[in-house]
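Please decode residue identities from the backbone states below.
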């Protein structure tokens, strides 16, 4: 069995040394609102009763925010003449 979205999210969190507040700020960069409670449920063990699977949309928004966080926003394109 391969990695789940939760596994990928946990590994990214550890690799980039991110705290819950950092993740919330990163998600805010792409106008995606997340709470500390939601993050806690995602980072729980799979056998925990309040475990929540990390959906594709959640991971996608986090990754898009992480790109902006690491590289900065895209520069505005100049209008063609």
């Amino acid at each position: 069995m391969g990695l789940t979205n939760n596994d990928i999210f946990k590994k990214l969190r550890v690799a980039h040394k991110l705290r819950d507040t950092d993740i919330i700020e990163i998600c805010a960069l792409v106008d995606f609102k997340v709470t500390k409670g939601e993050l806690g449920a995602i980072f729980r063990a799979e056998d925990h009763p309040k475990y929540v699977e990390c959906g594709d949309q959640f991971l996608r928004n986090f990754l898009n925010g992480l790109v902006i966080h690491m590289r900065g926003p895209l520069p505005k394109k100049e209008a063609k003449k």
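Observation: The chain has a mean pLDDT of 91.
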